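Encode chain A's predicted structure.
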Amino acid sequence: MEIKGNRLISEWVRKYRQNITLGRAFSVLSIDILVRLSNVILLPIYLRLMTQDEYGKYNYILSLIANFSLILNFGLFASQSKYYADAPTAHQKKIVLLIYLFTHGFTGAYSCSCIPVQGRLQPDKSVV
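Encoded structure for chain A:
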């Protein structure tokens, strides 16, 4: 009975190891785990180099960047890179590249225009 169960498990593992979609999802998830683990490892270094106020501003800016990139990407960059790879002629590849550069430049300029200046974050001392 145990041999039959081991054989079923090994067939199941072999079946899912050969699946391309699961392999790609595993690679993306493993990179995400490494990024989050590096943030945990670097946290004591950040806290030693920055004051608590500076670290708060740093995290605030990181959250703004993450939100703007999520909102402004619209999933266009992944589809454009696929379309660039599938474009049959060099002229079509140039057009796709120009569209990509325009959207990337526009979203970058818009994101930079929305980030508040550091002086605006500090309270006005003349009011107090």
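DSSP finds six helices and no strands in the chain.
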